[in-house]
């Protein structure tokens, strides 16, 4: 990392031009090629897949998206001539528009009579486009929408439903991404206090996500990529891109404030935090790849798009970021920090007062804090017990949208099950007995047998309940398990509702294997990183707790409907079947980032002092602020996807925002450190035989200065202790410096709220330890260090000045 970072820093103009050229080139290619996203639900060995295969064989020409025009009259009947005179000309005009293949009107003979409700107040017409919904230009669909709604008048309501119509009413592309970026920029500015420093993570995220989306668009011509993949790639790409750059920029700013040259600080930041970013990005990709074990081919394209975006975001953070740091130099600091650095010299590294006080409080009351955190997470996880997987449809759209109004009108006029009819597909045999059995089945509102084709008969069954209700799921089981066998024919139940049910069942069956896979991978990675059995076991347990609580929030909001109106997210319904796999993958990857960042600092203290309480306290005090800032940015980015107009992306955004918030603000800031205090030294236990056999993986190497000629060399160690007054009160913010015999400063820190400090010692030998406090004077002592850590407490008296040569 050192050589790469230095090269990028010194050749910053070349690196910037390469990235800009690559982004423009890939963007131009993607625009010229267009998109070819495809939602391929391949569910082998399922009943609905068998029905689909028979339908495709018998009716190969049923292509193109089918949408609906629905109208309702407040008085009279839709058969009235006044109503027909307004609707039929609009339908005739729509039939002649580009992209429209056919229009089936309820006013066209006896066949159309079934498209009028029994009370005569609601009717619908079917529009068959020449292409699939995602292939139809929005301009063409908008003309259809405008033409149909122009027929409205007082007392006559006209609404449209269908996939193509839904695409038109979505907010402008990029709106959610822009809102997320603006929110992240505000958090970054508050964290850094510098406009230039704020722009760095934003720029890295824009380059990473831009390259990822354009590349995914190109790959969609060769691989089946679902249309939700770009949204999910944007969601995760913005989050990790900004967070990874935040970690590196924070380390770089810290180095400059400690007196380092900007180039050396950037190189050091990339060699420390940059290595952690590589590790974190790798864990996210591994977690995403874990989706492949489910063998749900719909998710393969999601894995490709999101993983590619994460890889490009990591690449931007490790190559483009050091180049941008080279352009800014010391301006990565705020003006006030630059003035203070020039006037007062380098400042010691220290944790904020609030972070240090919270860390000390966790150490004092670990049982109480751990119990409170567990109770909060358990309460939030209660709704997950009623989790029901399924698929959202236009009945879940916002009540103000035309697709939702059309859905509700069809349900009002033709029954709740009309929006999700079942297709019973049979081959040969006596279908009359099957039709009779279906009509006598409770929960069936209507049965219609279509003319057979190539020996295949399709029977359309309209349930009495909505497509998303549990009663409809039970009806599908009844038809499959009782009605069809009783009729003695070979038949299968298909249709969108049956496919959604089968998809949810397959996902639920394979979810345990998926969870076991990603938990095992996480355990092995943390075992290598921290050489401990307890730390990865704790992390695995925390991931399960975070998953349960975040899904509890998801169920409460989207399944129970709590706060849906406030968020403008439509109507409650089941949780999308693919969401648990995607959310668990992303949650696993992101929580690993925070776990590595937190525990690596604790591990460094443990290696120096072998004092678990101090290691946990100092690690939490020095990392909690950055973790919380990163999590707040993630939450802002994820919540912005509520504005995407896509229910799946909105559901994923809310779920991931809840997961990250709970993981960072409760688990990593409270429960993890409290549990580590309670576990004591066993946190770092690893059997000797296993330690010898495990390869060494350095996530974030320790920064050490090269010894000068004549200085002692050997194994690194530390001096630690407390700075107190004569009365025993802790002295906070005292400057503790370690000097060599030649007068070179080797380390410099600030005492925490409890007066504790720790300085790194490069090797055994004699050193000068200087302690200075504005309120209590200064003191310096010579300290001899052996091969182990030295405990050295310092007592300061007010006005005291003490020095040694």
Automatic annotation (TrEMBL):
It is found in: Cell membrane. The chain crosses the membrane at residues 178-197, 204-222, 228-250, 276-298, 310-330, 369-391, 511-530, 537-562, 574-592, 626-643, 649-667. Residues 1-32 form the signal peptide. InterPro entries: CarboxyPept-like_regulatory, MMPL_dom, Mycobact_MmpL. The lineage of its organism: Bacteria, Bacillati, Actinomycetota, Actinomycetes, Kitasatosporales. It is a multi-pass membrane protein. This is Membrane protein. Belongs to the resistance-nodulation-cell division (RND) (TC 2.A.6) family. MmpL subfamily. Keywords: Cell membrane, Membrane, Signal, Transmembrane, Transmembrane helix. Pfam families: CarboxypepD_reg (PF13620), MMPL (PF03176). Residues 42-368, 462-685 form the Membrane transport protein MMPL domain. GO terms for cellular component: plasma membrane. It comes from the Bacteria.
């Amino acid at each position: 990392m050192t050589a790469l970072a230095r090269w990028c820093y010194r050749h910053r103009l070349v690196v910037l031009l390469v990235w800009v050229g690559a982004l423009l080139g890939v963007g131009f290619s993607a625009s010229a090629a267009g998109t070819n996203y495809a939602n391929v639900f391949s569910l082998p060995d399922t009943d609905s897949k068998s029905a689909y295969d028979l339908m495709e064989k018998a009716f190969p020409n049923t292509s193109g998206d089918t949408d609906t025009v629905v109208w309702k009259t407040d008085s009279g009947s839709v058969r009235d001539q006044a109503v027909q005179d307004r609707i039929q000309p609009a339908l005739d005009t729509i039939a002649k528009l580009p992209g429209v293949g056919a229009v089936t009107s309820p006013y066209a003979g006896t066949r159309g009579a079934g498209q009028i409700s029994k009370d005569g107040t609601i009717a619908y017409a079917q529009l068959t486009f020449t292409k699939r919904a995602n292939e139809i230009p929005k301009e063409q669909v908008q003309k259809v929408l405008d033409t149909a709604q122009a027929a409205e008048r007082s007392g006559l309501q006209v609404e449209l439903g269908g996939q193509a119509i839904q695409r038109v009413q979505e907010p402008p592309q990029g709106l959610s991404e822009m809102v997320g970026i603006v929110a992240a920029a505000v958090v970054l500015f508050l964290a850094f206090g510098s406009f230039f420093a704020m722009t760095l993570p934003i720029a890295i995220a824009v380059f990473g996500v831009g390259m990822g989306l354009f590349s995914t668009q190109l790959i969609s011509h060769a691989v089946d990529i679902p249309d939700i993949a770009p949204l999910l790639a944007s969601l995760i790409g913005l989050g990790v891109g900004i967070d990874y750059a935040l970690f590196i920029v924070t380390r770089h700013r810290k180095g400059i404030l400690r007196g380092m040259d900007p180039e050396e600080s950037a190189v050091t930041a990339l060699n420390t935090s940059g290595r952690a970013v590589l590790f974190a990005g790798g864990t996210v990709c591994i977690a995403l790849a874990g989706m492949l074990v489910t063998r749900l081919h719909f998710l393969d394209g999601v894995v490709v798009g999101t993983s590619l975006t994460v890889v490009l975001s990591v690449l931007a953070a490790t190559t483009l970021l050091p180049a941008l740091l080279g352009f800014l130099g010391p301006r990565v600091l705020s003006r006030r920090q630059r003035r203070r650095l020039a006037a007062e010299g380098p400042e010691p590294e220290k944790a904020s007062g609030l972070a240090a006080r919270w860390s000390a409080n966790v150490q004092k009351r670990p049982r109480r804090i751990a119990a409170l955190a567990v109770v909060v997470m358990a309460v939030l996880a209660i709704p997950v017990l009623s989790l029901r997987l399924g698929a959202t449809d236009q009945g879940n759209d916002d009540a103000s949208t035309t697709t939702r109004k059309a859905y509700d009108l069809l349900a009002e006029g033709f029954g709740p099950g009309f929006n999700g009819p079942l297709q019973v597909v049979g081959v040969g045999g006596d279908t009359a007995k099957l039709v009779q059995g279906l009509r006598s089945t409770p929960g069936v509102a209507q049965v219609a047998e279509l003319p057979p084709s190539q020996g295949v008969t399709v029977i359309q069954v309209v349930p009495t309940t909505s497509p998303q209700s549990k009663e409809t799921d039970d009806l599908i089981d009844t038809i499959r398990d009782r009605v069809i066998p009783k009729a003695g024919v070979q038949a299968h139940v298909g249709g969108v509702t049956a496919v959604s049910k089968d998809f949810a069942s397959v996902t639920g069956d394979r979810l345990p294997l998926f969870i076991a896979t990603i938990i095992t991978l996480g355990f092995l990675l943390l075992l290598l990183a921290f050489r401990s059995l307890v730390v990865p076991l704790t992390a695995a347990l925390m991931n399960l707790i975070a998953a349960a609580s975040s899904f509890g929030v998801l169920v409460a909001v989207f399944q129970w409907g709590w706060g849906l109106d406030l968020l403008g997210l439509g109507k409650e319904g089941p949780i999308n079947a693919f969401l648990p796999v995607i959310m668990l993958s992303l949650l696993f990857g992101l929580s690993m980032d925070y776990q590595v960042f937190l525990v690596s600092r604790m591990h460094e203290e443990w290696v120096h002092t072998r004092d678990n309480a101090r290691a946990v306290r100092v690690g939490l005090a020095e990392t909690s602020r950055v973790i919380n800032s990163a999590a707040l940015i993630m939450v802002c980015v994820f919540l912005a996807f509520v504005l995407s107009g896509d229910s799946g992306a909105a559901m994923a955004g809310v779920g991931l925002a809840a997961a990250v918030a709970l993981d960072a603000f409760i688990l990593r800031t409270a429960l993890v450190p409290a549990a580590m205090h309670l576990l004591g030294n066993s946190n770092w236990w690893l059997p000797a035989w296993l330690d010898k056999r495990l390869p060494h993986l350095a996530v974030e190497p320790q920064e050490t200065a090269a010894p000068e000629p004549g200085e002692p060399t050997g194994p690194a160690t530390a001096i630690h202790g407390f700075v107190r007054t004569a009365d025993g009160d802790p002295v906070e913010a005292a400057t503790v410096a370690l000097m060599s015999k030649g007068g070179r400063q080797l380390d410099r820190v600030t005492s925490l709220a409890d007066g504790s400090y720790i300085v790194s010692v490069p090797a055994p030998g004699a050193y000068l330890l200087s302690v200075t406090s504005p309120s209590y004077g200064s003191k310096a002592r010579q300290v001899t260090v052996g091969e182990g850590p030295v405990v050295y407490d310092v007592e300061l008296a007010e006005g005291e000045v003490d020095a040694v040569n």
